[in-house]
Write a structure and sequence with these properties.
The chain has 136 residues and is an all-alpha fold. The protein has four helices and no strands. The N and C termini lie far apart (101 Å).
């Protein structure tokens, strides 16, 4: 049995020796890199496979701001606490209703009421809204 152990050790050492070349000079040289084709050949090949040029098309007009609703946009406001609690209670007791839907419905109604009072829809904004607290 002792000879088997020493043979096993020697065999494992031999396996490691087989993985590393015994002499750096004895290692086989790496193959030479292949030179890329000349630029002219690449350009000819690209020109031969390129699709035909597309006729110049006029630029599309700039997008016009519309009143069409986008999918959704975050809109953060501070509201009186009792109003927020009433809205939450209404959503809780109305199956299928969400705070977003209730808010959109209420805001739509308020804007339409003001447009009726004014006699016409509000025109699109020409600039940015002022942000922050109103000046007293």
């Amino acid at each position: 049995m002792p000879t088997t152990r020493s043979t096993t050790r020697r065999r494992s050492l031999d396996l490691l020796d087989e993985l590393l070349p015994p002499d750096p000079a004895a290692a086989t040289p790496a193959p030479a890199p292949v030179a890329p084709p000349p630029r002219a050949a690449v350009a000819r090949r690209a020109a031969a496979t390129a699709p035909p040029p597309i006729a110049a098309t006029p630029e599309p007009p700039a997008p016009v701001p519309s009143r069409a609703p986008r999918r959704a946009e975050r809109f953060t406001v501070n509201l009186p606490l009792n109003l927020v609690e009433r809205a939450r209670d209404a959503v809780f007791h109305t199956p299928g209703l969400t705070l977003a839907a209730l808010t959109a419905e209420a805001l739509t109604g308020a804007i339409e009421r003001r447009e009726r009072q004014r006699g016409e829809p509000f025109p699109a904004r020409q600039g940015r809204l002022r942000v922050g607290r109103p000046v007293r």
